[in-house]
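Session log. Operator J.P. requested a structure for one protein chain; no other inputs attached. Running the standard single-chain path with token output.
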Amino acid sequence: MTETVVSTSTARPGTPTAAPAPPAPAPGAPKAGPGGRLRALDGLRLVAALMVAAYHYGGRGGYVTDAWGSSPKFQFPTLHTLFAYGCLGVQVFFVISGFVICMSGWGRSLTSFFASRVSRLMPAYWVAVVLVTAVFALPVVTYDAVSPSDALVNLTMLQQPLGADRVLGVCWTLWVEVRFYALFALCVVLPGANRRRVVLFCAGWLLAAALAQAAHEPLLDLVLMPEYAPFFVGGIGLYLVHRDRRDAHAWGITAVSFLIGQHYAVGELWNASDPNAFAHRTTFGIVLVVAFGFVAVAAIALGWLSRVNWRWLTVAGALTYPFYLVHEHLGWVVIRALHRGLHVPSAATFALTVAAMLVLAWLLHRFVEKPLTPRLRTVLSRTR
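Structure written below.
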């Protein structure tokens, strides 16, 4: 959910030492649009972010109930059931992340990869943590702010393993992403990415994750992430398909990843037997959304969406990460102000809240990410 680097070239102008360019795609591989950018992937990222926002605003109970003044199921009598599937936007993000991280890590040094990831994640994240902490500390906001100590720990992005309260509800997914980056960096980027090494990494991770699930060992679960590994691996497999659509091993990795991934998604989210569930998700619905994520990325990998190359999709992709960071908690504040304070109808409140969070995301991108990301990347890329 954090990637905007979707170029088939990994060289970075302006860095002290340029990373070696990745090998040319095999004959028959689909081509990206002008500039090497897969803009359809940017658009898919925004779709996944909007899915998660729909879930947080109208597809679950909890704190958002206080924002609306009643359960969202009463605000959206029909749509709340569909919104409940929006949480699967996270799994779609993970498939995209696998694709993009393999693409951006191919041919890069470990230093360059580390600099790219840190500079992409941290500037907007730091500002989002400070912003949400400050807003929740205001007397007019009824939600509890975390303690000053926990807020400071949140700036490290290590609040979950350290047991601190989270400032951003969505940051648990960033902790998952960070562990994926670490595994990929150690197993693929450090020794040097090539097809054989990537295939072995995918097969080894899937097998190790399955063994970890069977072993019921918390440390193995923490490192190998059995419930999320198939989605990252599926994205990596689809990047190999993007490089060579005739790669049978890549297709096999993708297929196995989907089969395992839908199993975990159904096991975690199927709740038809729970009489107190906010909304009852069906097995078919969950599998369908997971399949959508895999099929959409596959269509991009195969070049079927190469005509979807509108320039505004680049902007959409750039807004996705800051939108994802701020939309949940600050969205509650906006919903409460509009719906309970100004008596704006539910549908209009929903739309205006999404629009407000997109505007805030643009401000974070324009005034935080654009100036700070390249500077931080340059500093971290310096070799000593």
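Operator note: The chain is about 65% helix and 0% strand.
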